[in-house]
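S.,

Sequence below, as promised.
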Amino acid sequence: MSKTVRQALIDEVHYPIPVGFIENKLIERGLNGGNEYTIEVSRSPEWKGALADCLYSLFQAVSLSESDKSIGTLSDEDKKRLLVRINSLYKSIGEDSVGGQPMVYIGG
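The prediction came back faster than expected:
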């Protein structure tokens, strides 16, 4: 079975984020999204960085909350687990950890 680097990253994120964003991160990390996804790619700092960047975009996504109902958002526990994974990836490639607060929060 063969899979492209681009498709593997989309599959790994699990949540829908714009394909254009994923492609930007692949380019920024020096990966060719059309190349075959291999074990070597999966272990590379470039892959780990692109994955962490994409996961971090989920963490930063806008949260809408009203009357104790959330729309299209991760729970606080989901965000905590996600942040641990993001920072683990960044640490494994020698990059700085990211903070624990989402960029935008509306409601309360």
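Residues 39 and 47 are 11 Å apart (CA to CA).

Coffee later?
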